[in-house]
Amino acid sequence: MVSRLLVVTSLIALALGKPVRRDLQLHESRQSVPRGFSLVGPAADETTLALRLALVRSNTAGLIDALYDVSNPSSAHYGEHLTKEEVEAFVAPKQETVSAVNTWLSENNLQSTSLTATGDWLAINVPVSQANELFGTNFSVYTQSSTSKQIIRTLEYSIPTDLVGHLDLVHPTITFPDPFGKKPVVNAITPSKRSETDSKRADNCLVNGTYITPSCLQSLYSIPTAPATSSSGQLGVTGYVDEYAEYSDLTTFLEQYRPDVNSSTGFTIVSLDGGEDPQSSGDAGDEASLDIQYTVGIATNVPVTFITVGGDVNSGDELANVLIDTANYLLNQTAPPQVITTSYGLDESTISQNLAYNLCDLYAQLGARGVSILFASGDGGVSGGHWDSSCTTFVPTFPSGCPYVTSVGGTINVPETAVNFSGGGFSNYWPTADFQTDAVSTYLSGIGSTNQGLYNASGRGYPDVATYAADFEVVIDGTAYGVSGTSCASPTFASIVALLNDQLLSAGKSTLGWLNPLLYSTASSAFNDITQGNNYACSDYTTGFDTATGWDPVTGWGTPDFTKLLSAVGL
Ligand SMILES: *[C@@H]1O[C@H](CO)[C@@H](O)[C@H](O)[C@H]1NC(C)=O
Ligand SMILES: *[C@@H]1O[C@H](CO)[C@@H](O)[C@H](O)[C@H]1NC(C)=O
Ligand SMILES: *[C@@H]1O[C@H](CO)[C@@H](O)[C@H](O)[C@H]1NC(C)=O
Ligand SMILES: *[C@@H]1O[C@H](CO)[C@@H](O)[C@H](O)[C@H]1NC(C)=O
Ligand SMILES: *[C@@H]1O[C@H](CO)[C@@H](O)[C@H](O)[C@H]1NC(C)=O
Ligand SMILES: *[C@@H]1O[C@H](CO)[C@@H](O)[C@H](O)[C@H]1NC(C)=O
């Protein structure tokens, strides 16, 4: 009797002193610790976690319909991109969602900050002990073997049952950073290679074995050298993982490779989350230098903005955070740049499905606003962001699998063939997109049972297009290097889109926005079809996918022909 009474008393004390305990339901989980990480032990109770919450948006299906309606060239509303307010009307969470989440937050004495105008993304700070209770989990410390840095993550988390359908994502929880990161391959240019390549330049670089410069790309793809004339066209370049671009390197680059352009041409810096762009000797990053020099250097006279995002990504704060913050920053602009290029990515399997879907939804919103979102397809062939001989099935990259981004693969040689590192394949998160069902089924029937069981035949196929991606000359801290990777391809294609936009704007037409429905219909024949080569695979297989006539998951539709693209977009 006595002991039973005691139990009752203490239960009441618990109920009075603490918020109502809610039933929890498992929300997201991963089966194991991803490769490249090892468990250290429980996270300290008092450590503060900075979490981002995504609320369920009111009308995602309506947003996607609207996106197709303005992006499909055969639609009556093609090019009639949505305003900020129109997109926000689809995105704003329902009132019942807002109040359910707010009630739960205030019950737990948590203050939230809205990261967006509509309040669909919130930020909260919460100690580990409270987070463990709120989400029925045990946050733990993991070590990243490549860097020895420690991060706090969990392998599963729950949310209150009555928030299911309202709270869509808690992040970072089960998404681990990419263990390797994605960086282009950089090679010093030796004097003998220098003289060899310079002698070949005489042929406008249309020979094998030269280093690639803007004029090579201009002649390969018929890209105009004339300056853009419209006053409203813009091009955005993202800068992550402490990658910085130097004005002085750009000047050297323009003097050397674009003598017809004012070498004082610069770029505008936008800083998010404390992102920097220091300009001292030694600060230049390979990736940022490449991305800035092959946008300013090809999209002649299009204003370029370098969006540098901080957040200590190298110490385990994964790329996902900077992608969320970049997209939300752009969506909060009345007139964001109409083209954005990003040469960073992750293996799809490292990112939680809910987080991947939430990011993809942000790209759909940007597409509806008329922004073309370009990403490099990855440098590991079918083995992920980087070549990884240990994979046993093909590893798709993120965000290339998101149908609302345009994924850019790579080529090499003249005539062009697929470059073996060109990332390509099929997503496990998104099904074959509506705009590509014919292209994908034609390709798959062509390969028959090849690679069966190694890839997801019902997934979204990528890349969508390609450009040359090997041996680009880039000035890094004053010295020219040869840089290779699909990191070369995304800025090149972005510049072409920016120049197309310029001519559209000058003709009083709207910009291209989400490109994929156009690329898989009227513009598919505006590409040089790449039918030679393949991408490499996990060590046990000789090749990943082969190129083919038409679309293939190595080079997409092929490489651009600017003249044909102009007529494909009605100019
Ligand atoms: C959106 O932009 C406005 C105007 O620049 C700014 O005041 C506001 O803080 C921004 N909102 C968010 C959520 O960043
Ligand atoms: C958290 O860890 C404790 C102690 O190891 C264990 O009893 C509990 O079941 C774990 N909770 C969850 C949700 O994994
Ligand atoms: C370039 O190299 C490729 C592959 O080795 C070859 O097929 C092609 O003929 C070469 N092109 C020229 C112009 O030498
Ligand atoms: C080159 O650009 C700089 C910076 O915008 C400008 O000050 C200068 O006048 C330009 N020079 C010429 C020759 O147009
Ligand atoms: C990819 O191609 C390069 C040069 O064309 C070659 O050196 C390299 O070995 C190839 N890599 C693989 C994994 O096949
Ligand atoms: C393959 O893709 C489909 C469509 O997106 C998806 O439903 C399925 O889960 C994927 N399979 C695997 C093994 O990931």
From TrEMBL:
Pfam families: Peptidase_S8, Pro-kuma_activ. It comes from the Eukaryota. It is found in: Secreted, Extracellular space. Gene3D superfamilies: Peptidase S8/S53 domain. InterPro entries: Peptidase_S8/S53_dom, Peptidase_S8/S53_dom_sf, S53_propep, Sedolisin_dom, Tripeptidyl-peptidase_I. GO terms for biological process: proteolysis. Its EC number is 3.4.14.10. Its cofactor is Ca(2+). The active site is at 287 (charge relay system), 291 (charge relay system), 487 (charge relay system). Transmembrane segments: none annotated. Secreted tripeptidyl-peptidase which degrades proteins at acidic pHs and is involved in virulence. This is tripeptidyl-peptidase II. It comes from Rhodofomes roseus.
